[in-house]
Amino acid sequence: xxxxxxxxxxxxxxxxxxxxxxxxxxxxxxxxxxxxxxxxxxxxxxxxxxxxxxxxxxxxxxxxxxxxxxxxxxxxxxxxxxxxxxxxxxxxxxxxxxxxxxxxxxxxxxxxxxxxxxxxxxxxxxxxxxxxxxxxxxxxxxxxxxxxxxxxxxxxxxxxxxxxxxxxxxxxxxxxxxxxxxxxxxxxxxxxxxxxxxxxxxxxxxxxxxxxxxxxxxxxxxxxxxxxxxxxxxxxxxxxxxxxxxxxxxxxxxxxxxxxxxxxxxxxxxxxxxxxxxxxxxxxxxxxxxxxxxxxxxxxxxxxxxxxxxxxxxxxxxxxxxxxxxxxxxxxxxxxxxxxxxxxxxxxxxxxxxxx
Length: 356
Ligand code: NAD
Ligand code: TYD
Prior knowledge:
CATH superfamily of the domain at 2-189 and 225-252 and 294-314: NAD(P)-binding Rossmann-like Domain
Number of helices: 13
Bound molecules: nicotinamide-adenine-dinucleotide, thymidine-5'-diphosphate
Strand content: 15-25%
CATH class of the domain at 2-189 and 225-252 and 294-314: Alpha Beta
CATH topology of the domain at 2-189 and 225-252 and 294-314: Rossmann fold
Structural class: alpha/beta
Low-confidence stretches: none
Number of strands: 14
């Protein structure tokens, strides 16, 4: 069984491969990744020489390269993680998001359609698993949760391109009978996340006593999911999910950004001996993100009821593990904080007005 995993050198994809390459020796995993800014090959060191794994250094926007790979190593399952994934980058430069998230997904769907169809039906056992986000549903007010039936209403260019890719996947299901599953998960955190996202950015800034840039008043709410729980849920959907269905994944863990940052100050203080007051004083309220969604919250009852999946990690223990991981993995951190990273920090934060 050949399993194509796109974006396997990124945050969630690498955690997926680290879990399943050793666990599924009879599956042959091909990691299709262009090794962009968010990829870190160090993440994959433990499996780099595994007999059932290889890296294919390919951009999913390059259809011919995908086609050559499909002839050489035809996929039975495609688990599609590859994406431009950061909302702030999508605001400053949306084009790359349309290219990778929409056109790249389209290319993979075309590969699946060409290689999986026999006449009008599809060869048994094939699955296109599309990894998506709750951001396709837009913003919630103070109450309510997203279900699988929630209306699509994306706010950022990132969310709009992910919504477009979800629609394309469903359209291939309806039109060509392509067997697909979609998972829409809430915000992930944990080891190996590129330090542009809230939690790793704050951890690294805390370790270096740099200001902690909080957008607006820090009152936006995100529903946090530990990455290993997410990866576990994807494994369960691949194994037991139904074709043509989507599943929301979340851990019922809503927190205001300000509370997340406060919690990180406490944990980093405990591990470094710094005073909590000194770290809390680094909090800096800055100009808000345009179109900033107020609140996300996932109703994960479908995957719990139908497939028996449940998250294992509490937010407190997950944050603790995450802080420890960044403290203990400086080589990984140093490898991603290149000149390009510093340019991003300057582009996104350099001109942002301080609110206090
Ligand atoms: P990431 O940015 O850490 O990693 C993305 C990976 O995709 C990188 O390795 C990058 O090199 C690769 N990639 C990007 N463009 C590519 C291209 N054109 N061709 C080949 N490879 C390419 O992202 P992540 O946080 O691991 O997210 C993975 C998936 O999960 C994405 O589809 C994202 O939308 C979805 N998701 C993420 C979260 C989250 O909180 N991080 C939540 C829900 C859903
Ligand atoms: P982020 O990690 O970018 O994820 P997303 O935008 O996909 O939810 O941001 C999480 C929350 O943290 C979001 O409400 C924006 C906020 N945020 C800040 O306040 N400061 C920051 O520097 C970043 C990156 C995010």
